[in-house]
Amino acid sequence: MIEAPGPMLSSMVSKRRETAFAWARAHRGVEREVDDAALRVLRGTAPPDLRGTLFRCGPGRLSANGTHYRHLFDGDGHVCRFHFAGDGSVRFRNRFVQTREFIAERDARRALFRSFGTNKPGGVRRNAFDPIFKNAANTTAFAHQGRLYALWEAGLPHRLDPVTLETLARETFGDRLLDKENAWTRIAGRELPFTAHPRVDPRTKELFAFGLSNGPVQRLHLYRADASHVMAPPEEHKLDALYFVHDFALTARFRVLFLCPARFDVVRTMLGLATPVSGMTYEPSRPTRIWLVPRDKRAVEPIVLEMPACFVFHHVNAWDDEDGNVRCHALRIDSYPELPHPYDTDTLSVAPSKKAVPFYTEFVLDPRLRTVRAKRRFDTPCELPYVEPARATSAHRFSWATATDPQSPMQVFTRLVKFDCAQSTETVREFAPGFPGEPVFVPRGDGGRGDDGWVLSMGYSARDGASILEVCDAATLESVCTLELPVTVPPGFHGCWTE
Ligand SMILES: [Fe+2]
To answer: How far is the CA of 344 from the centre of ligand 1 (A)?
Structure first.
């Protein structure tokens, strides 16, 4: 005889079902582009002293032209613009990024390109020996010195008009991102990859970035552009083995890169039997290498540190401390995470043994002794961390991130968390069965001690059955107001705030 679940278990199951349903609703895809619509306030009052613009980027749709993308990273890039006028009104605009692949597939009404996690329909016949992957332009909306970019880590940035969101150009920084020398990239399009996570020095306004070229030998390209967008010739390092690098950090002296050990099945991927994502495996038998690359000298060898294998997708911040060490705050994972399938809500839950959980970790890196000390600072599993860009390269006290319920098997980040490094305290706000997106901190005035202001998070409200922009008090995470979007938008990945 099967017993009925008790009330507590029944409530947990119901909550999981509701979250899975909300996830599916949020990811059904953007149905239309909207021009400058006033956002409806569902609850609270939009702060009249908040003035500026939030940009968000993510996969706007996860199926197109009859093809269902099989991975969250494959959806066509889409950018939202939220303009806070400073009088309590908020206006919204959204656009798909007009990449040449997006336009070609729209005109052909069928899939023409491979993606990170999805091959073209037609099997080996249509995918073998096709080294061209779609630039999805779907990861980060990034502003630098008056310019706005939609970024995807394996291709060129797309420059957008910051007011209309019109796609203006495939950015090569004066041809610096064109690879004229290498035969492999000549075959694969001659364009150098550019990370979705550039860093800007708040003092000099210089932009630092990297790109990882895959091929028979992996190459790491390091970029640097001045405040006028003039890029120096890229530095190139050939890597001794295969690694995964998604993000990096910047101090006043160093670029800090965590090279996480991975293996890519290049043969099966080139034969069209695998995708780059399905052909990648974590190799914990190899160490994670941490590169400290001096910032202000060209063509110098990096200082290489080693530690037992771990994965780092995202860094919070880094700085040089008074002892000559580099302090790097990053989210450490013990293995490569299994990401939920865009449509298969069963994949939202995984067994605890398979759950790759990111924890906020402080790494103390000694460039002279080449040692690494790692210490977990907070116990809430989290992702998509955000620190105020003005605090980059110097010690910060506060940061924010999305977080999961440690008791839940769900992979969905249903919480926001605020970290206070000075007090070693965490503040958590629950959104389940809905979920928030990356929290973007906006200071009020000079930001006071560092958490005086707001946190803006685009997410999905199951209660309202709509995509929302939640404005929180940055200190307490309490709701200031909830704004309803006129279209449903997947929460996406990364964004930025501009005055
Ligand atoms: Fe990222």
So the answer is: 22
Q: Which of 110, 137, 138 is nearest to 126 (CA)?
A: 110
Residue % of the chain over a pLDDT of 70: 91
* 31 within domain boundaries: yes
Centre of ligand 1 to C-alpha 72, Å, is 12
Q: How far apart are the first and last CA of the chain?
A: 64
Establish if 300 belongs to a structural domain. Answer: no
The CA 383 to ligand 1 mean position distance, Å, reads 9
CB 211 within 8 A of CB 223: yes
Per-residue pLDDT reduced to its tens digit, 219-231: 999 999 999 999 9
What secondary structure, in 3-state letters, does 28-60 show? CCCCCCCCCEECEEEEECCCCCCEEEEEEEEEE
Region class of 433: left (phi > 0), else alpha (psi between -120 and 50), else beta: alpha
Domain of 453, in residue numbers: 7-236+265-286+382-498
Flag whether 366 is in a domain: no
Residue 176 to residue 157: CA distance in whole angstroms:
12
Q: Dihedrals φ, ψ of 474, to 5°?
A: -65, -25
Asked if residue 302 is part of any domain, the answer here is: no
Q: How many domains does the chain have?
A: 1
What separation in Å is there between the alpha carbon of 490 and the centre of ligand 1?
15
43 CA → ligand 1 middle, Å = 30
Residues of the chain whose pLDDT is less than 50?
A: 1-5
CA of 493 relative to ligand 1 center, distance in Å = 7
Which pLDDT score, from 0 to 100, does residue 301 have? 86
247 Cα–ligand 1 center, Å? 7
